[in-house]
Predict the 3D structure of the following.
Amino acid sequence: MPSIFLERLSEHARRDGSRPAIVRPESSTTYGELVRRVEACALALVEQGLHAGETAGITVRDEASHLVATLALLALGIPQVSLGTHDPVPMRRRLAGRVGVTRIVAADPEDRLEGLECALLPAGGPLAQGPAVLPGFGDDDAVALYLTGSGTTGEPKIVAMSERDLALQADRGYCDYGPERVLRLASVEHNNSKRLRLYCLWHGGACVLRDHRSASIHELCDRLHVTWLDLATYHLEDLVRAAPVAGRLPSHTNVRCGGSRIPSRLRRAFVAQVSGRLHVSYGTTEVGGICYSYPSEQMDPAEPVGRPLPGVTVEIVDAERRPVEGGAVGEIRVRAAGMVDHYVGDPVATRRHFDGGWFYPGDLVRTLPGGALSIQGRRDDMMILNGINIFPAEVERVLEAMPGVRHAACFPLRSEVHGEIPVAAVELVDRAGIGVDAVMTWARGQLGLRAPRKIVVVDELPRNPQGKIARLEL
């Protein structure tokens, strides 16, 4: 059965084969060329023994080559997972074992894993002009892509997605990607980055790749006419810090940011110093895009992540999973086409997060006036101190509103007498500027009994590769 992604790329090529699909600082690949490269790569992998029933692990550093390999495996119907070159070999080996990888797809023979077959990507060369006849080993609803979560609560969870799931998610939340030029700073070796690049190609957009780090983001956006810049929260921070020298982004570049909480202070600073075209999104690996907010909402101190996207059903429920009233805080549950319904090899987590056709990500939210959602923290992070519910995001917003505090993270210390005692770690703009006592006084004045009982100043909060705060380390 033909791959729906390859069919979609071929359709873009038939309509306008000269349209750029991959744009690099020094070169570009059209949709016509991309289809031929994908077909050539797929045939080369089959010639090296890749066959039905296998699962491939991709270990390819070059972004364009990695993307071609991903599309080639989709075209063949071979399930795949990224085994990133940035991860140590033992970590790659564990992930490969969890999903049953049988063959490594690599550009460098040094990236093979002992005990597994390895297929090498073909070197560049002349491309056939006619369409290739590819064997189809899968179907649209079979597993196409294994993705891992962020791993903030321990070993990353794994979800299995089909091509149809990917297409449904792309149509729901990222229709403004085509025919735009989209630059995402994180490498395609990272799961979410790969998925967003597939969304871009699904809609006929151009994936802009950095290739090297010498050119500034501002220069790339200007010279390559980037219309969408996809960022993580820590990228926003970097651009704000660089603003006094680098200035503002080009006016034609929209910015989309998601993946972790974006503090109100950072939103305001980014709009004032870098770009007024900031959009904040909320989504999960399991569902894809859930909510989306627009530039006009970024000054709201409640930190809205927007309203549910068309086709996404959202409810906020209490501990018994009954809908809450009005703007009360509760756990969000989501239902949408293209979402997965289980975790691979983890029945305990599956029972906890999937129930009755709903996905429960574990986030606590409330509905703001007007219908936008505001994230209050994780269900597992909520603290109960002497019967008082304390939400980390509430504490963090107050601390980050204090001049001189760059970032804050609130977490509990367990107490047999009091339950969970709130503690906060803070990053300061200048450690000589303010002291712990001043931060504590500010917190007590704003939060009363919900204020942290201890504040610790750290040079830098621990974060995972996606920029999320690693609370277990705290």
Notes: The first strand starts at residue 20 and ends at 23. Residues 141 and 162 are 5 Å apart (CA to CA). Residues 31-47 form the longest helix (17 residues). The two ends are 49 Å apart (CA to CA).
